[in-house]
Amino acid sequence: MEALSSTGLVILAFIALILLRLPVIFAIMVAVCLYFIGSGLPAGNIAVRMTGAIDSSVLIAIPLYLIAGEFMNISGATRRLIAAAQACLSWLKGGLAQTNIFSSLIFAGMSGSALADSAGIGKVMIPSMKDRGYDPAFSAAVTAASSTVGPIFPPSIPMIVYGAITGTSVGALFLAGVIPGIAMTVALMVWTHLATRSMPLKGAVERPSPGRILAALADAALPLATPAIILSGIFFGFMTPTEAGAVAALYAAGLGLFVYQTANLRDLFDGITRAMIQAAAVMMLLGIAAVLGWIITLEGVAAGLGELLGGNAANFIVVMLVINMSLLVIGMFMDSTAAMLVFVPVFAPIALDLGVSPVQFGVIVVMNLMIGVITPPVGFCLFVTASIAETPVRSVIRAALPFLIPLLAMLAAVIAVPAMTLWLAQAV
Q1: Highest averaged pLDDT of the listed ranges 2-6, 59-63, 104-108, 377-381
Q2: Nearest-angstrom CA–CA distance, 418 and 58
């Protein structure tokens, strides 16, 4: 009865603090501390389990990819990539919106973060779209929707976290995200084409000559090689995902220091500082959420939920529908890292019992949670892009809701067609 009351206290405290908009990391800390107090467990075990959770070589990849993204911004590589995308697409009707989406796919090959994608691309593309006559809310919504591709297409910080939680190969997860990431991009571009056909945009941009397009692509050739280096190294077994992160960071630093000469050592040091602050926040969240996950396992929540859903005898469609709907709702309120640490230990065993590959399930989990970052009431990326567009968040929410249709369609495709995730992943 005592354990039951402690568990109830943890759940109530956690839900209450989240509803009060307390940062997730502090909400989890308070809930965990209350459980240990209520159960009479030694508080020192919290620190032991936190350090144990982040004592993993796989997690070294997180700061490395954050550094690589910072160095790409500092070197001017991001600007060159966007310029190349603009030269190829912006002259079309609705082409600037298409450029926004395609730039997110390219930027995804360097950052691995939806928030970094929405901020980095948004600062360049949203003002340009507003100047062309796009509604500010639509400009922000396109940017937020396309940022969901970032954590799907490799490299991906959420994939690294999932791999650390479940012991799944991060290299396989990276490769599993290639086809879904491209499919999401295409679906968003098609949807945007349909949405912009009747928009009263300002005069069409002059179609660039083939020479100008080739020049823009040549100017962006070295930054474009970054995802190719990462993926080929992992695919052919030359590098682990962690080593690929280190290579990407060194490559981006070389571009800024020696090729483009747009950065100095001070700039790189500042970039490393920003990346380490972000990484520290992620690691702290990983540690404390791992303790909460341990509590959930200790209390038999995963086993109880699996039994409730029917285990091996359950209907695949019904169980997967329940899991995906749960993850979509969770993603509306919680940061993706915290959500995975708390709920992946609950849902993963159920999915595996149904015969779902851990690699495929990893992509499914991340896609669900990424859809959550553009879904109210929280919608982290909506707030970022609304701030850049200088428009009310409620207007961005209304403009973003239609983009859920192509994203949910791609999620359904990934669930129904395992080959979308497993074809390339089988090479690792």
Answers
A1: 59-63
A2: 25
Angle at 157 between CA 355 and CA 160, to 5 degrees: 45
**Calpha distance 419→198 (Å, rounded):** 37
Contacts by residues 44-49 (CB-CB < 8 Å, ≥ 24 positions apart): 46/288, 46/291, 49/287, 49/290, 49/291, 49/294
| CA 372 and chain centroid, separation | 10
CA gap 59, 12 in Å, rounded: 31
What would the two tokens of residue 424 be? 């390339």
Residues 358-410 pLDDT 10s: 999 999 999 999 998 888 776 778 888 998 898 998 899 999 999 999 999 99
Count of positions (residues) in the chain: 428
Tell me the helices (H) and strands (E) count for the chain, helix number first: 23, 0
Global confidence as pTM: 0.86
Sort 373 into a burial class: Cβ within 10 Å, 0-12 / 13-18 / 19+. buried
Distance CA 203, CA 192 (A): 18
Q: Among 88, 98, 149, 150, which residue's Cα sits nearest to residue 128?
A: 98
Residues 187 and 387: their CA atoms lie apart, in Å, by 26
- Does 227 score more than 80 pLDDT? yes
